[in-house]
Amino acid sequence: MSGIVKEFPGVRALGGVDLDVRAGEVHCLLGQNGAGKSTLIKVLAGVHQPEEGTVVWDGAEVSLSSPQASLKAGIATIYQELDLVPELSVAENIFLGHELSTVGFSQRHRANSLTRELLARLGHSEISPGRSVGSLSPAGQQIVSMARALSRDTRLLILDEPSAVLDQEEVNNLFRVIRGLTAEGVAVVYISHRLEEIRQIGDRITVLKDGRTVATGLPVSETPTAELIKLMTGRSIEYVFPPRPTAVADQPVVLEVAGLSLAGVFRDVDLTVRAGEIVGLAGLVGAGRSEILETVYGARKRSTGTVSVDGRPLRRGSVTAAVKAGVGLAPEERKSQGLLLDQSVYSNITVSSMDRFARVGFLNRAGEKHKASELTTALDVRPAGVTRAARTLSGGNQQKVVLARWLLRDCRVLLLDEPTRGVDIGARTEIYQLVRRLADSGVAVVVVSSEIEEVLGLADRVLVVREGRVVHEAPSTELDESKVLDLVMEGNVA
Amino acid sequence: GNEKNDDDQDLGGGTTQADSGSNDEAGDKIVIGFSAPAADHGWMASITDSAKKVADQYDDVELRVASGTNDVNLQISQVETFINDKVDAIVLLPFDGAAMTPVALKAMQAGIPVINVDREFDDPNAARVTVLGDNYGMGVSAGAYICSQIGDKSDAVVAEIAGIDSLPLTQERSQGFKDALADCGQDVDNRVAADFTVEGGEEAAANLLQAAPKIDAIWNHDDDQGVGVLAAIKNAGRDEFFMVGGAGSANAMRSIQAGDSVLQATVIYPSTQAADGIKLARLLGQQKNMSDLVEVEVPRTVQLYAPVVTKDNVDQFIDTAFES
Amino acid sequence: MSENTTGAAGPASADTARVEAAAEETAREPNRAVALFRSSAGRNTGLVVALLLLCIVGAITAGDRFSSSDNALTILRLAAVTGVVSVGMTFVITAGQIDLSVGAILALSSVWCTTLATQQTAQDSHWIVMVFVALAVGAGCGLVNGLLVAYGGVVSFIATLAMLASARGLAEIISNRKTQIVDVPGFVDFFDHELFGIEVQVYIFVLVAIAGWVLLNRTTFGRRTIAVGGNPEAARLAGIDVKRHTVMVFVLVGLCCGLAALMLVARTTTGSSTHGTGLELDVIAAVVIGGTLLTGGRGSIVGTVIGVLIFTTLTNVFTLNNRSISEQSLLKGAIIVAAVLLQQRLASRNSST
Amino acid sequence: MSENTTGAAGPASADTARVEAAAEETAREPNRAVALFRSSAGRNTGLVVALLLLCIVGAITAGDRFSSSDNALTILRLAAVTGVVSVGMTFVITAGQIDLSVGAILALSSVWCTTLATQQTAQDSHWIVMVFVALAVGAGCGLVNGLLVAYGGVVSFIATLAMLASARGLAEIISNRKTQIVDVPGFVDFFDHELFGIEVQVYIFVLVAIAGWVLLNRTTFGRRTIAVGGNPEAARLAGIDVKRHTVMVFVLVGLCCGLAALMLVARTTTGSSTHGTGLELDVIAAVVIGGTLLTGGRGSIVGTVIGVLIFTTLTNVFTLNNRSISEQSLLKGAIIVAAVLLQQRLASRNSST
Ligand SMILES: Nc1ncnc2c1ncn2[C@@H]1O[C@H](COP(=O)(O)OP(=O)(O)OP(=O)(O)O)[C@@H](O)[C@H]1O
Ligand SMILES: Nc1ncnc2c1ncn2[C@@H]1O[C@H](COP(=O)(O)OP(=O)(O)OP(=O)(O)O)[C@@H](O)[C@H]1O
Ligand SMILES: [Mg+2]
Ligand SMILES: [Mg+2]
Predict the structure, then answer these.
(1) Residues A313 and A369 grouped into a single domain
(2) Most buried residue among B17, C197, C345, D154 by CB atoms closer than 10 A?
(3) Residue A476: per-residue pLDDT
C-alpha cells in the first residue's frame, strides 16, 4: 500500500500512508489512539474506499472496492469492534457469507464439525457450534471472530487489537495459532497497544502518527521500546504508575458491599472501599468481575446482599439510585453500553450531570460545551471539538469520553471496567494519573482489569476473583504477577 | 327517454336523456364542488361516477371533485377550499352528517347553496336541499319482504350481514329491519358486520354460516359485499335459505333475474343521489326551478324510495342499476 | 468430542466446568426431533397456550358449532390468505425492514389478473396465465419496494407507504373501481377445489408455511436474512451483498401477495381494488405476536402461523357468540396484550430452567 | 478554560493548539441565530424545497385560488389536528418507540368529552370541564401504553395496536356508535374563535410546535428522550430512568391526542368513534418524512411540521386541480418518494460541504 489518503467529513484520517507486508511475517501496526490504524486496515478490507493511493497485491495493482473483493483476494480481518450477528449460532457466524450449502440448503452438520475443528485449533473446544453468539462473553465472541477469519482461505490476516478482551492465557493461545499460520506463509498484520505482545510475536513494525507513516519496516528485535514510544507520541514517556499515598486506612469507608450474590454468576462478595482507595479486581475473563461491578451499580438485580454508599444502603436494581448516591460506572463495552454514538461528545459527557446545567429543565448548552471542552482538553481527547458525534472518535478516545462523564459528575464511588482497554500508552499513563488524582480527592475507586500488571500497579488493594468467588484479598504490595496468576488460575492460596 | 316519472329515475346517472323541458338548456356557467367519502366500495364509487357523468352532460357545469375521504377533518377542509374558491354550489355527501354541519353552515353563510346528499346534517339551515336515501325504509322493505316469505313460522332463523357498523346509516338500516321483523313476530338471530367490501363480506359470511347451522333468511345490507357473501355461501354449500340484498347492483339484479343463487331479492338504495344533487345544484346556481313541480323554488327535501326488486320486477330496474 | 481440550493450557477445573456445559449442550443434539420440538415449543409456549385457551373458550361458549371439523376448516380457510402474506412478511421483518404495502399489492394483483384482457387470454389459453400475471405483478411491486429501500436509501416504512398509495391508486384506475368478476373456467375450481375434504387454499397455506420454515431455518438465504436484520454492518463485512438481499426479501413478500391475491380472487370470485384493505396491520401484528423481532435479526415462522391462527380464531369465536364488533374490538386489544404477556412469562421461565 | 491541564503530561505546544481548536468550534456559537438557521435549514433543505416545489405547482395550476391567504389558512387549519399529534409522535419515535393508537385515543377522547353527562357537567359549570376530560382520557391511554411498554415489556407496536382496538371499541360502546353533538356554549366558540383573522386552532398548532421544539432541543427531557432512543442500555447505565421516561413520552403523546380531540370536536361540533380513523399512518409518515429516525435517537420537530404541511398542501393542490381520487393516490406515492430522495440528496450535499 502506498500513499493512502482517506478523509472523513472534517477529518483527514489517513494522510498518505505506506505499508508493505511480506508473506510469512507478522507486521505490527503501532500508533496512538486515533492515529488511523483501524482506518488503514478498513481500507485494506474494502470497507472504506481511499481518496488517493494504490494497493498492490501479489505484484499487481488491485482495487478493493468492497468487503467481498477483499475476502476474495484472501484478506481476512478481525475488526476492533466485534462484527458478529448475535442471533446466529457460532457455526453460522463463522461461515456467514461463505456458507457451506448444497443448492442453497445449509450443510449444518459439516459446518458444525468444521467449526468444532476450528475452535479446537484455537483451544476452545468448549464452545458449542450451535450456541447463539449473543450468549457468549466478549472474549468468547472474539474467539468466534478469529475462528471465522481462519475459516477462510486466507493469505493475509489482519487483527485489530484482538488481545483487548483476552487474558494472558488466551493471548498465548492466539500467538500459537498465529505462528502456525505464518509458518504456512500467511502474512499477518497485528495491531495492539501492548508493546510486550509486539515483542513476543512481531517481526517488523510500522508506526503511524496522525494519519501518516512515521517509520516503517522496523525490525522488532532491534528497536528499543523507548524509541517506539517516541515515534508514536513524539515524546518520551515512562510507562509508570502514580505513587500511592501512604495512609488510607484511617479514611472513612465509602463503599460497603456485603454478601453480594447474583444467582448463577457470583456469590458472597464482600468489598469495602475507603475514600481515596483504589481497589482492583483481578481474574480471568468470565470470572464474573464485570457482573460484580454491574450489580453493585444496580444494573443487575442482586439476589442477596447489601450495597451501601457512605453508610446509606442502595435500592436493589436501580441505577438511578446508585447514580444519585454518587456511584459511576465506566462499562466494559463502551460502544454498546457506554456511549450514545450519534450524540455529540459534550452531551455524552454531560448526560449524567444534566441537572447541573439545567434550570427548571432548560439546559444551558453553552455551559455544557464549555465544561466538556475543559474535560476533553484535560484528557487529551482528539480531535478536541466537543460537538462532533461520539461515533467518529477512535476507540481510545471514546473511552476517555466515558471517563470524562464521571469526572464531571464528582462521584463518591467510581467503578471502572477495563478502563484502559484499547487505550494507547500515552493516554494510559494519563488515565492512571487521573484515577489516582480522583482517589486522592476522596473518591473510592474499583478497577477491573485483565492486565495483572495494571491491577497491581494502580490499585492499593487487590481482590482476586475466580469462578464467581473472591478467593484472595491483599494489599497490592504483597502480591506480584506470578502470585496473582496462580491465584487466578488455581485459587489454591485461598 | 324513460318510462317512469319518479324524480330519481328521471335524473338517472347512467342515462343520457335530456327531456325534462327547458331546464336542460344551457344557462350561466357554474362551478359545483363535490365531496364524498372514500370510494371504497361499489356503491360509493358509483355515486361519484354518476355525479361526474351528469356534470359532463352539461357544458355549463364545471365539477370540482375533491378526493374521497373518510377523514372528517380532511373533508371539512375540502369544503373550506370550495368556499375559498367561491364555487356556485356544493354537493356534499358527508362521511358523518353531524360532523360536517358547521362547515356546511359556513358555506351557506357565505352564500353558497349546499346540497346535502344521503347522510343528513343535524341542522336544517346547513343545506339548501337535502337528497336522502331512505336507510330506515330500506331496512323496513327488507324486513317486510322477509316477513312475507317466511310468514309466521315461529322458529325461523333470520340473519343479518350489516355494512360498516359504526356508520349511522347502518344503524338506521338495522333498526328498520328489526322493526319490520317485529311486526311479524320475528327477530334477528344472528348478526355480523362486514365492511362493504367483497373480502369483508366473504369473511363475515363464512363465520356467520358457521355460527348458524340452519338459516331461513338472510338480509345482506350491500350488494357489493354481497358478491363475497354469495361466494362464501357457495363455498359452504348451503342453500336452505334465501337472501335479500341491498343497494341494488347490476350484478345482484342479474343474479335475481337468472335465479341461479339464493339471492331472491334486493332493496334498492339509489346510487344516483349525488347525480340528483348535481342537477339540483345546477338549478339552484342558475336560479331555475324544478319544472315538473308547480313550485317556484327547488324544494328543501327530496327523499328517495327504497323499492324491493324481485324476479318479477327486475326488468324495470336493471338498466339503471350500478355496476359494482 | 468433549475431550478435545489438548493444547488449551487453561486450568483443569475451569475447563472441566466449561466442557461439561458444552457436553450437555451437544448431548441433546442427536435427538433432533425432540430438540426441535422442545426449542420451538419452548419459544412459543405462551402462544400455544393462548391459542388453546381461546379454543377452550370457543368450545365452552359455542359448543359443537366451534368444535366441529367444519368450523376448524373455516378458520383455516380464513387464515390462509393472511397466513401466506404473513409468512412473506416474516422474512421482511426478520431482515429489519417493514412492508406496509402488502394489502395494496394484493389488491393490484387481484385486479390485474382479473381484467377483461387477462381473462380473455386466460380463456383462450389456460387459467395459469392469471397465476403468472398475479405473481408477476406482486413480484414487480416487491422489486420496486426493494430497489427504493436498498439502492434508493428510502426507509422501508416510507417507501412501502408510498407503494401502498400508488398501488391502490393504480388498482382503482385499472379496475375503474368496479368489482371484476372472474369467469375463467378452471381457475376458481382449482383454488376452491377440495382434496380429501380439505380445500386447496388450506394446502397452499400449509405448503407456504413449511417452505417458509425451511427457507428461513435451513438455507443460506434464511441465515443471511437473519444476519442482514441482526447486524447489517457485520453482514456486509462478511461479504454478503446486503442490498441485493434486501431486494430479494421484498420480492419474496411481493410474490406471497400475488399468491394470496389468487387465493382471494378464487374465494370471492372477484378482483377488486378494495381487496386487502388494512391487511398490513393484521399481518404485521400476527408476525410480531409470533415472536419475530420488529428490529430484525430474529424470526419465527411457527410463531407467525400461530399468530395468524390466534387472530382468525378470535374473530370466529366472537362471531359464533354473536358479540358486537365494538365488544370484539375492545376485547381483542386486551387479548393481544394478554397473549404477549403470557408468552413472555412462559418463554422466560422456559429459558431459565 | 484552557488552563486546566495540570497533571496531563502533555507538552505545552500541543495542548495550546488543541484548546484553540476546541475554542474555535465553540466560538461559532455566539452567533446562535445564524447557526440555528444553518443547521436546521441544512438538515431540512430537501423538505423545504419539496414544499416550495409543491407550492409552485399549486400556484401555477390553480393560480390565485391556491395563493390566496384564505387558502393558506385552510391548509394550516387542516394541518392543525394532525400537526399537534405529530409533534407528540416525534417524541415517541425519537425515544425509539411507536404509537399506533393515536387515532383511536383521539376518538375515545372526543367521545368521552362529549357524552351527555360530561356536557351536562360542562353546562352546569364551565366548558373547561370538557378540556380536562379530553386531556385526562388522552393522558390515561398514554399512561396505559407507556406502562405496558416500559414495565410490561410489550413491544410498543403490539401494545399500541392493542390500544388501537380497545380504545376504538370503547369509544363505540360509550357513544353507542352515534355521533355526539356538542352544544356547550363557549366551547366551540373558543376553539373556533378568530384572532387577527387567524383561528385559535392554528395558534394552538404553532404553540404546540414551538413548545415541542423547545422541549426536544433545549430541555433535559428532550435530551433524555434522544438518549433513551439512541442507546437505551447506555442511557440506563448513565443513570437515566429509562422506563419512567418511556412512560412519560407516551403520556405526552396521549395529551397531544386529547388536545387534538378537542380541536376536532370544535371543528366538527361532534364527538365520534370514527374520528381519527387512519390518523396513525398519516402522523407517522409526516414524522418520518421529517427526518426523525424510526429506530430512535434522532428527532426533528421542524421536519415534522414541514412533513405535515407537505401532506396537507398535497391534498389541497389535488383538490384545487380536480384530479381523480385514484390519480391522487397514485401520484401521492410518487411524490412521497420524490420528496424523500430529494431530501437525502440535498442533505448529504449539505453535510459534505
Ligand atoms: N466513520 C468515521 N467518520 C469520521 N471520522 C472517523 C470515522 N472513523 C474514524 N474516524 C477518525 O479517523 C481517525 C482515525 O481513527 P482510527 O479508528 O483509524 O484510529 P485508531 O488508530 O484505530 O485508534 P484506536 O487505537 O483508538 O483504535 C480518528 O481521528 C477518528 O476520529
Ligand atoms: N448475558 C449473559 N447471559 C448469560 N450468561 C452471561 C451473560 N453475560 C455474561 N455471562 C456469564 O457470566 C460470567 C461472567 O461474565 P464476564 O465474561 O463478563 O466476566 P468478567 O470477569 O467481567 O470478564 P471480562 O474480562 O470479560 O470482563 C461468564 O460465565 C459469562 O458466560
Ligand atoms: Mg482502532
Ligand atoms: Mg467483563
Answers:
(1) yes
(2) D154
(3) 82
